[in-house]
């Protein structure tokens, strides 16, 4: 299992361009590449699948157990696995190293190449390297220097090697940067094609300035992964409609794979373009995405909204998380605060959050009642974004975070609808129970 992590000293250090360039360069070498992203963000995996056309997954040491993390890397890996860090290398949950890139590299025994932004630095680069190397236990093996000229690199390389680390190259500031953090749901085909051209330019730059052969050699030194994990067996043959279009595109790929292993046929459909739900389905999965950006068009598709509203009210087993939950409300504000009619299966309005501090948070969900996914008192580690507020937040779960607790999620025997995103490998019973509910639906139909 060849694997290596590309991490950064801080957000905005140039890591995203470097990772994209390296991934595309490896694809151009005709290697089978798997990309992993540390943390819960969907953006990079969606970008990698759409633009680079490679398999891409999330890894998360807050949501998942160590055994599970190692299993998922081994299960999904290929010729070479590139793990992209997030934030600063040591930055994790609530000002700790929990869920940091460093923790993930230690859990998985993965060599790390650290990206350092050199803008405004000269001899002080040695202090930065020394500080990151000695701050805490880590797997840092070398450095890529970002945003420097070729003439400066020999000095940076010398400073790096003085401290016992390998210099893997440098990356100048590209004149034509790839939009790796762009809202991909807005991209038409011509824009996707344009992004692919830009990533090819990054790949060419990476081949010229980064020692990719040495990166592959370092990745080959990663030891075998150790874990004790058993994938659950098939439960039933059921069909689950899964919303997927420019509004709905954020799903953990491992969630979909786990559902398939439990017997689910994933049936994609578009709330933007289709006029109703697919026929002969036993469940519904509404994931996250850029729903507010497409609120007007979603609201105009009244036949689809009626189809979903009737299905949810009639007891079709449904998971709606994040934007999918927002879509189920009676009304939704877009980013301009214009308000649009939505599905109406959840009796409330969803608006831009002006009540609490917005942000992204890890939480642990504890069930306050028996529901479709679990029994009262059962827990799952989760993740939520608080950029929106609901007048119907629900009381199905308590969301616990660092001494703070609130209620969330609308739940029943056939429904989970809430802001928190669920990674099914955090508690596979949630996925199993969803499939069992879908199987019961199929049995009732028969």
Structure description:
The protein is an alpha/beta fold and 446 residues long. The protein has 13 helices and 24 strands. The protein has helices spanning 15-28, 43-52, 66-76, 101-107, 125-134, 153-162, 189-209, 212-220, 253-261, 295-300, 302-313, 323-327, 428-445, and strands at 3-8, 33-38, 55-59, 80-84, 112-117, 140-146, 166-171, 238-243, 248-250, 264-269, 283-286, 288-289, 318-321, 329-333, 339-341, 346-352, 360-367, 379-385, 388-390, 397-401, 404-408, 410-411, 415-418, 421-422. The strands form five sheets. It has a seven-stranded parallel β-sheet, with helices on both faces. Strands 10-8-11-13-23-22 form a six-stranded mixed β-sheet. The chain is elongated. The mean pLDDT is 93.
SSE blueprint:
Blueprint: E1 3-8, H1 15-28, E2 33-38, H2 43-52, E3 55-59, H3 66-76, E4 80-84, H4 101-107, E5 112-117, H5 125-134, E6 140-146, H6 153-162, E7 166-171, H7 189-209, H8 212-220, E8 238-243, E9 248-250, H9 253-261, E10 264-269, E11 283-286, E12 288-289, H10 295-300, H11 302-313, E13 318-321, H12 323-327, E14 329-333, E15 339-341, E16 346-352, E17 360-367, E18 379-385, E19 388-390, E20 397-401, E21 404-408, E22 410-411, E23 415-418, E24 421-422, H13 428-445
Parallel strand pairs: 1-4, 1-5, 2-3, 2-4, 5-6, 6-7, 8-10, 8-11, 11-13, 13-23, 14-16
Antiparallel strand pairs: 9-12, 14-15, 16-19, 17-18, 17-20, 18-24, 20-21, 22-23
Helix pairs in contact: 1-7
């Amino acid at each position: 299992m060849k694997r290596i992590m590309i991490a950064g000293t801080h957000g905005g250090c140039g890591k995203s361009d470097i990772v994209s360039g390296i991934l595309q360069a490896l694809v151009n070498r005709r290697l089978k590449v798997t990309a992993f992203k540390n943390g819960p963000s969907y953006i990079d995996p969606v970008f990698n699948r759409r633009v680079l056309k490679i398999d891409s997954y999330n890894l998360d040491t807050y949501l998942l157990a160590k055994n599970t993390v190692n299993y998922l890397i081994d299960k999904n890996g290929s010729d070479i696995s590139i793990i992209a860090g997030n934030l600063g290398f040591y930055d994790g949950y609530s000002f700790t190293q929990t869920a940091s890139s460093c923790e993930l590299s230690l859990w998985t025994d993965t060599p790390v190449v650290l990206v350092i932004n050199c803008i405004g630095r000269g001899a002080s680069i040695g202090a930065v390297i020394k500080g990151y190397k000695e701050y805490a236990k880590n797997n840092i093996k070398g450095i890529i220097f970002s945003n420097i000229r070729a003439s400066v690199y020999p000095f940076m390389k010398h400073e790096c090697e003085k401290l016992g680390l390998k210099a893997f190259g440098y990356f100048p500031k590209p004149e034509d940067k790839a939009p790796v953090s762009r809202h991909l749901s807005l991209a038409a085909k011509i824009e996707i094609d344009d992004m692919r051209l830009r990533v090819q330019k990054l790949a060419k730059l990476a081949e010229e300035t980064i020692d990719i052969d040495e990166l592959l050699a370092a990745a080959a030194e990663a030891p075998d992964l150790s874990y004790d994990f058993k994938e659950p067996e098939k439960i039933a043959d059921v069909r689950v409609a899964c919303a997927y279009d420019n509004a709905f595109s954020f799903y953990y790929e491992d969630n979909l794979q786990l559902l398939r292993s439990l017997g689910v046929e994933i049936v994609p459909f578009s709330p933007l373009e289709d006029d109703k739900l697919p026929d002969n389905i036993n469940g519904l999965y509404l994931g996250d995405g850029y729903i507010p950006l497409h609120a007007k068009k979603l609201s105009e598709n009244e036949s689809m909204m009626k189809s979903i509203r009737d299905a949810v009210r009639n007891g079709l087993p449904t998971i709606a998380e994040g934007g999918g939950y927002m879509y189920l409300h009676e009304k939704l504000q877009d980013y301009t605060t214009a308000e649009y009619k939505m599905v109406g299966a959840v009796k409330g309005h969803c608006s831009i959050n002006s009540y609490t501090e917005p942000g992204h948070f890890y939480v642990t969900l504890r069930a306050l009642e028996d529901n479709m996914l679990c029994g009262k008192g059962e827990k799952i580690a989760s993740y939520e974004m608080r950029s929106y507020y609901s007048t119907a937040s629900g009381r199905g779960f308590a969301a616990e975070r660092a001494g703070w607790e609130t209620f969330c999620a609308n739940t029943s025997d056939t429904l989970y609808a809430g802001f928190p995103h669920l990674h099914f490998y955090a508690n596979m019973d949630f996925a199993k129970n969803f499939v069992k509910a879908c199987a019961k639906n199929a049995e009732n139909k028969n």
